[in-house]
Amino acid sequence: MDDGGGSADAGTMSTAPESHPVVDDVVGTVAGSLDPARWRLVEAPQPASLDAPDAWAYHAVADIDREQHLEIYGYDDLALEARDVLSGMQHQEYEAKRRFVILAAREPAGEPEVPDVVAHLFVCRSTSSNTHLGESYASVRPAARGQGLGSALMDLGEGLCRADGRTVLFTATQHATEVPAGPGAVEATTGAGRVPADEPGPRFVARRGYVLEQVERHSTLDLPVEPELLARLGRDARAAAGDGYRTHTWTDEVPDRWLDEVGVLFTRMSTDAPVGGVDYREDPWDAERVRTWLTEERGKDHGVLTTAVEHVGSGTLAGFTVITYPEDRPGFAFQDDTIVLTEHRGHRLGMLVKVVNLEALARLRPATQRIHTWNAEENAHMLAINVALGFAPAGGWDAWQRKLTPGADA
Ligand SMILES: CC(C)(COP(=O)(O)OP(=O)(O)OC[C@H]1O[C@@H](n2cnc3c(N)ncnc32)[C@H](O)[C@@H]1OP(=O)(O)O)[C@@H](O)C(=O)NCCC(=O)NCCS
Q: Structure pTM?
């Protein structure tokens, strides 16, 4: 299947029917379930660039994502840009990805120049690891909700995952504030983190049989961090780390000498960071995958700022932290992965790399006003570091999972 490629009408969705009859059936069945007088299901075409005429679907995906973020948070820092969609779809070396959109049916009087996209589905299946998992994410514009479009899209995403032999379905919702315990809340199976039960996303996915397996706390840090606080945290961390460790900071490309080791750190992220009840297993990275990730970030026009810490005695990396940022939106940045390998914990290396990276960000990009980050609610050590730096809760990213029963009609 030509993932992400070629648009087709609802009745002619077959990108490769002869080789994928089951997959084609899934698409055709869902497309056929929509009222043709009102809606058309189309696979998003993969444009050569965002200026190409067939880039309309990726622009619409970004617009829907922005609308959804404004609805939940009131700001769009976290929303996808069209270039994020394009670069992400261009890189399928480790995941198979497909995007579908639902269009409002055309007026008989004439065709609008730009299709009226009302809903979007992203389906992602990891191919290099975790081949039991299948991810589906549906978004419907508020004005088009409550008419079965979200259900149709999730039927499609889940059907494609099942047809591909995936036995665990995954999806996610987001919320801006944590609700108090009680009937208005869904509790994560980890016991840490709650989601508002009455918001459209949680209600919808819970109805479809998904279980809330983990909540990642979204936190924001207002910059600049009070210089005295940062200096003190840095001093304390350096004192605890001693002479046995030294930091290295770089932007964008990973120096050749660290490529393999950065691959190890990303691999260990997949096993050492808490995943709650999500059936997520080791996801191996090597130097080639690190390069691919950086190429994808460059395609998104994202800068990448990294501080790693070397264990001097062995000459190996003991941990790292990564900040990414859209080059053309200086107001914010994202605190991405941070890890200290188990064998090097207890030396305040997590705080050390974070302080050094924040100091580097202040020099490199002094206009940055806030940093967003996400940490598992049960990840007490990481949260403690972030709270000490001044990160404050700003909502959550909610991981939902549905295990299929073998042989049953899921
Ligand atoms: C969650 C979301 C995708 C649902 O989209 P939707 O198009 O409204 O979904 P549906 O219409 O299929 O179902 C929504 C509700 O309408 C009801 N419904 C379905 N078909 C209907 C119809 N023909 N007429 C009236 N109601 C209908 C459903 O039973 C459901 O009821 P509920 O709210 O009590 O659960 C949408 O709210 C959204 O985009 N939210 C933000 C993104 C998100 O959280 N996505 C979830 C991760 S996949």
A: 0.92
